[in-house]
From TrEMBL:
One BP annotation, GO: nucleobase-containing compound metabolic process
Superkingdom assignment: Bacteria
Biased composition, class Pro residues, residue ranges: 323-335
Source organism of this protein record: Pilimelia terevasa
Example of a GO MF term: nucleic acid binding
Alphabetical keyword list: Exonuclease, Hydrolase, Nuclease
Organism placement in taxonomy: Bacteria, Bacillati, Actinomycetota, Actinomycetes, Micromonosporales
Regions crossing the membrane: none
Amino acid composition bias (Low complexity), ranges on this chain: 7-17
Hydrolase found in the keyword field: yes
Entry protein name: 3'-5' exonuclease
Domain HRDC per the UniProt entry, residue ranges: 241-321
Region of interest (Disordered), ranges: 1-41, 317-337
One Pfam family here: DNA_pol_A_exoN
Length: 420
């Protein structure tokens, strides 16, 4: 093996040869680090180049999670045979519909596609076909499915991930960050070929194809907004009573409005732990508020009135406007089943055992064989007549793919029908 990374066409052979060799650090793209495209003329040149390239297109996106309120992309990386690597600054060119049209017929290769599809869709980029290297690795039965682990184990090259949590909204972006970003797509096409070969060898390529098609149908939709997003505050389970719940709701709402207005991650305005502590203590004045851990910073002290007003608002609510338990969406938490419905708990245990056995035999994570939520719903409310076809219909109703239904429906019917 040479010191240069393998070309896209050499990927399968490189994957086989590197398996038994010590990995080498990959520190620079083979064609150098390109400057970010941040204007219409440069974007037009990029569109022409990628439109005439050959084969799949590797894509990645960098966000500023933990720093910004939004989940928008602050850098988009692409690579295609015949076109090389490109970096796009969406701040300067926020509409990439022309690029989308130019590569519409190509297969798009992403790693952990569900993380990037929403922010790519916001820019006008939606795949018609895709290959997800992380999902492919899971279906192939690989234990370590991070991008760096896969390139090291399958291609023999190690990638540094020390900029993965960087604030990508920074401008200008440091050269070292741009190199890091370019390297994220440098070997993605090689990795795609190595994983595709592994899936074919195991007879799992059609399974993966169904999963990828489901991702395309999903198309980067933004997750549904929860009716009560404040209930996801870390530590909220410690609060007892609807009045305390009202306080955390009021504080959460005040923080969210501030974060949205500033385009800042909510946790940087006020950590969840401080928010919950204030909801527990219910301070009535600034001195009491500032005595709570998390409220003694200079920026937080300046906002003392915001938090005290929110708490006062919650304190003044009539009982009829206090939070009530959310309507049930599916079965209760499994740890309560034994008390509430022992027969359902027994069904769930048998179904889980069946799924685990099948997944182990197929070298699949159980959650990729069939979603745990599907199993819980099925065990809690089984079909009136437990047959393979009835179970299959229920699983399809829970968005299970045909390959999953084929592998688990019959055994789950047996598990559901077994005597308690």
């Amino acid at each position: 093996m040479t010191d240069e990374p393998p070309t896209d066409a050499q990927a399968p052979a490189a994957a086989e040869e590197s398996a038994a060799r010590e990995s080498r650090p990959l520190t620079a793209p083979r064609d150098g680090t390109p400057p970010p495209v941040d204007g219409p003329r440069a974007l037009a040149d990029l569109v022409a180049r990628f439109g005439t390239g050959a084969g799949p297109v590797a894509l990645d996106a960098e966000r500023a999670s933990g720093y910004r309120y939004s989940q928008r992309a602050y850098l988009v990386q692409l690579r295609r045979q015949g076109a090389g690597t490109a970096l796009i600054d969406p701040v300067g060119v926020p509409d990439l519909a022309a690029l989308d049209a130019a590569i519409a017929d190509a297969e798009w290769v992403l790693h952990a596609a569900s993380q990037d599809l929403p922010c790519l869709a916001d820019l006008g980029l939606r795949p018609r076909r895709l290959f997800d290297t992380e999902l492919a690795a899971r279906i192939a039965g690989l234990e370590r499915v991070g991008l760096a682990s896969l390139t090291e184990n399958l291609l023999g090259y190690s990638l540094e991930k020390h900029h993965s949590a960087a604030d990508w909204s920074t401008r200008p972006l440091p050269e070292s960050w741009l190199t890091y970003a370019a390297l994220d797509v440098e070997l993605l096409l090689d990795l795609r070929d190595a994983l595709a070969a592994d899936l074919r060898a195991q007879g799992k390529d059609e399974w993966a194809a169904e999963e990828f098609a489901a991702l395309v149908r999903w198309g980067g939709q933004q997750p549904r907004t929860r009716a009560d997003p404040w209930r996801r505050t870390s530590g909220v389970h410690r609060l007892r009573g609807p009045r305390a719940q009202a306080r955390v709701r009021a504080l959460w709402t005040a923080r969210d409005q501030l974060a949205r207005r500033r385009d800042t991650a909510p946790g940087r305005v006020l950590p969840d732990a401080a928010l919950v502590a204030a909801a527990e203590a219910d301070p009535r004045d600034e001195r009491a508020l500032l005595a709570i851990t998390g409220f003694n910073g200079r920026a937080t002290r300046r906002l003392a009135k915001v938090w005290l007003d929110a708490l006062a608002e919650a304190r003044a609510l009539p009982d009829g406007e206090l939070p009530t338990p959310p309507p049930a969406d599916g079965p209760p938490p499994p740890h309560r089943w034994a008390e509430r419905d022992p027969a359902a708990a027994a069904r769930l245990a048998r179904c889980r055992q069946s799924v685990t056995a099948t997944a182990t035999a197929l070298r699949l994570p159980p959650e990729n064989l069939i979603s745990p939520d599907s199993i819980r719903r099925l065990a809690w409310t089984p079909p009136e007549e437990v047959t393979r076809d009835a179970v299959a219909a229920h699983l399809r109703g829970y968005s299970a793919r045909e390959w999953q239904v084929k592998l688990v429906a019959a055994d789950l019917a047996v598990a559901l029908a077994a005597a308690d």
